[in-house]
Design brief:
The protein is α/β, with parallel strands linked by helices. It folds into 3 domains: 84 residues, SRP54, nucleotide-binding domain (Four Helix Bundle (Hemerythrin (Met), subunit A), Up-down Bundle), CATH 1.20.120; 197 residues, Rossmann fold (3-Layer(aba) Sandwich); 141 residues, 434 Repressor (Amino-terminal Domain). It is built from 22 helices and 8 strands. The chain has an 8-stranded mixed β-sheet with strand order 3-2-4-1-5-6-7-8, sandwiched between helices. The longest helix has 23 residues. It is flat, with a radius of gyration of 26 Å. The two termini are 23 Å apart.
Amino acid sequence: MLERLTDKFNSLVRDLSGKSSITEKNIEDAVEEIKIALLEADVNLRVVRRFVNRTIEEAKGEAVLKSVNPGQQFIKIIHDKIVSFLGDSKQDLELKGPDTLSVVLFLGLQGAGKTTATVKLAKRLKTDKNRKVLIIAGDLVRPAAVEQLKTLAFSVGIDVYSENGSTVKKVVTNGLKFAKKELYNTVIIDTSGRQQIDSSMMRELSEIKKISNPDESLFVADAMTGQSAVEIAKTFNEEIGITGIILSKFDSDARGGAALSLKTITKRPIKFVGTGEKIDDLEPFYPDRIASRILGMGDIVSLVEKAKESATAEEAASLQKKIEKATFTLEDYLDQFKRIKKMGSLKSVMQMLPGMSNVDIEGQIDEKEMKKEEAIILSMTKSERNNHKILGPSRKKRIAKGSGTNVFEVNKLLKKFEKTRNMMKKMAKNKKMQNQMMSQFGGY
């Protein structure tokens, strides 16, 4: 979502980071470029003015003009200002302890991704926080909204409370009673939205909030709607009161201005971002990490966390031993495909590496080719995956037919696998080569 903004800032960082001296004119020119970049990214005009004024005020001080490395010092100021406008630090949900019922109320317009975000958060609280979660189906306006919610929730083992032919107030009241009786410790209330804000919706939401007395009132904002999302969030906060924001469709190609404007305008933090269509694609919002990505500095911390989620320390150690002893098999190769998928698209992973946000991933790595390779390996038997040396002409023909490829492509994969295995073995034994690779990531 932040690609265009990142392109502008990348250029600025390259121009400034190497300067041994910097003048007030340099600062003014750079800030003017920043202002244009922010406006083009659809950042709120009030936010842009505040950002520019505060940056100029701090950048023209002695800390920059007389520092040992003024270029880097100025970039640090820009980074810190972006972090400040995004919300300073990660904000957790304010929920009660596991022995007391906590209530989370979801708010937002129709089409913002509210129902999907409800299930995503429920799954996250169940899996990561070990909470017993119940979703109350309170969207009685949108056709099939309750059925959609049930289908999504049940697919990940989340319970849903709903009623037929009832009112929203009754559904919420009875749902909360049911949650207490059945000893749930977390209730998430999905509510109805409209195409636009209207007085009847606001009255309904105010009544639901009064009945449920939520610990958190989360507004779901659609990142693709840009500035309108900011104004809608502001209205919801003034009329209903919100405690935080979930920014959906953060993986879209929208200009990104909403993310930079929401916190400043609403005075409420972005707590989560939706990064894809899968139920697991909901991540905590880290202002400092997003600021680093905007400036092209990558996000190694998030990348490491994703890697940890896809493999345990024991699995990583076992893989390391196989690489060192050259016993790495096509079965292990297939397992790595699955782990990479779990981490997200190659593009999203590469964007977390320093200096890689502008690399043409599609031009360097063919994801279609990877899918083809995966199909070839899946067409093999387990014994063939564990010992590719037994693959003769007849077996290769069978594998090619089963994967929808040809023998040439099967041979191509086997040669690539052998080459990769040998390279990994050399790297595992060559500590100097490992250190050189790591320095490429750390020496930005």
